[in-house]
Amino acid sequence: MGFCSVRCWLITGAVMGGVLAILGGILFPVGDSIIRDTVHKETVLENGTTAYEAWTVTSVAVYRELWLFEVTNPTEVVQLGAKPTVVERGPYTYKIRYLPKENITANSNHTISFVLPAGAIFQRDRSVGDEEDAISFLNLAVVGAYSMLPKLLHGRLNLAIKKHNASLFQSRTVKELLWGYDDPLLSPLLNLTVGVFVPYNDTYDGPYNVFTGKDDISKVSMIDRWKGETKLNYWNDKYCNMINGTDASSFPPFLDKKSPLYFFSSDICRSVSADFERSLVLKEIELYRYTLNPLTMAAPTENPDNRCYCSDPEVTRNCTTAGVLDVSACRENMPIFISLPHFLHGSPSLSQDVLGLKAIEEEHFTFLDVEPVTGMTMRFAKRLQVNMMYGPSKQIEVLNKVKDYTVFPLLWLNESAEVDDETAERFRKELTSRIETVEALRVALLAVGSVLFTACIITIAVTSSRRGKKA
After folding, report:
1. Distance (Å, whole) CA 179 – CA 200
2. Secondary structure (DSSP) of 74-128
3. Is 413 inside a domain boundary?
4. Are 75 and 129 in the same domain?
5. Which residue, of 2, 91, 280, 393, has the greatest Cβ tally within 10 A?
6. Rounded distance, CA 426 to CA 432, Å?
7. Is 225 contained in some domain?
8. Tens of each residue's pLDDT in the chain, 471 residues
9. Of the residues 419, 439, 456, which one is the last residue of a structural domain?
């Protein structure tokens, strides 16, 4: 009777273990479905979801650190044709993106529209000096006028340069160089305020139209229109004018390491892609790091897809120069070239024409750290360099000694942000914890069930064997 009772209990335990293991196994696909449903619900851009709340507020501080390139040999460059030598001055740091999205409007085609107001607040405690620091800098007015005025007017420009005692370089404050000043040379000619980021404060980026993901979660945050258009008009090519991906603040959920992330940047007037590099953990949240593909800024001879970005073969050495992007078409024809800092991944000639540059991968590369289940960007660093181009001129005396076209670095910036502790905790509580609970439950059921089933079966077998020997 006793043996029968033990045997019955063991059989019951084995059955229960088997049931638990089966439930755990069933919970894998069921759990995946629960997780997907939860993520789909919370990542849709509509009022009441976790994603919408994070999308509309500006709780995470975004800072823009700026390093300006000071010229140490301006006289030798102008009078002797020497190569310019530069040194970094910085960082001068500003808090940006502190203003919330405006004009948020839900549209009938499952998109939502908005504009991004621009503003910058100087952060003295994060900077090496004051905005009133003076720096020997490229003369933006001279180089701008040289490029924007037809060559027929270069003689008159030379007279104006001499009248105002201007040169290829000048001393200006950081505040003037970044945010603008009235130059006696250029302002009367073209009625322009001169500055690297002019205009910026009190301006808007957009409007943007992005998909909410309500009807198709794989399209959430994808840009449908920018400034009312589905494509750009800066490049003479359908491919280069495409607006692909999101604005990089978030991506569709359930990332695939094998697939690149696409995003559009109005700063560089084009779409780019980033590839998976590695996994990492930030504030107890597992993230995927994505970095720009080096071919993004490659010369057309190496990456034919970039040929449509080569707008002037003369100044880009017949489209063989790598590492710079001519964005003058979207900068009112100012001779602006965008690159990675210190011409990282650029042609050697770029850093040979301007001395004092040294590209360092760890300091100068761009990355996105994205939570792979939800597609939310938790940390990023966008690093870019702003350059201007000038060349030789027989009519403009300050350019008489210049031997070749020079892409001159003005400054490089590190625009970065990281999810704060409060937001990270809320993210873990509202979304990650639910996923982890389902994961833990199904693993526990499968593990406990398997162990219980196996132990009971083994015990039954051993007990039966011993009883048979006794008989």
Report:
1. 7
2. HHHHHHH-PPPBEEEEEEEEEEE--SPPEEEEE-TTSEEEEEEE--EEE-GGGSS
3. yes
4. yes
5. 91
6. 9
7. no
8. 444 565 565 555 445 644 444 554 554 454 456 567 777 788 899 988 878 887 887 668 899 999 999 999 999 999 999 999 999 999 999 999 888 889 999 998 999 999 999 999 999 999 999 999 999 999 999 998 888 888 898 999 999 999 999 999 999 999 999 999 988 887 666 667 899 999 898 899 999 999 999 999 999 999 999 999 999 999 988 999 999 999 999 999 999 999 999 999 999 999 999 999 999 999 989 999 999 988 888 888 888 888 888 877 766 777 888 999 989 888 877 889 999 999 999 999 999 999 999 999 999 999 999 999 889 999 999 999 999 999 999 999 999 999 888 999 999 999 999 998 888 887 777 666 556 665 665 565 555 556 555 665 666 566 666 665 555
9. 419
Burial of residue 94, with CB atoms counted within 10 A of its CB: 0-12 exposed, 13-18 middle, 19 or more buried: buried
Q: How far apart are alpha carbons 210 and 56 in whole angstroms?
A: 13
Residue 221 lies in a domain: no
Is the residue at 406 inside a domain? yes
Residue showing tokens 């700063």: 267
State the total domains in the chain: 2
Judge if 445 and 339 occupy the same domain: no
3-state DSSP assignment of residue 313:
coil
| Domain enclosing residue 287, as ranges | 60-98+120-201+231-419
In which element (H, E) is residue 172 found? strand 169-173
Query: Is 447 in the same domain as 393?
Result: no
The number of beta carbons lying within 10 Å of the beta carbon of residue 365 is: 18
Q: Are residues 326 and 182 in the same domain?
A: yes
161 & 310 share domain: yes
Tokens representing residue 403 in the block: 């031997």
Answer yes or no: do 463 and 340 share one domain.
no
Q: Which of 462, 372, 319, 419 is nearest to 7 (CA)?
A: 462
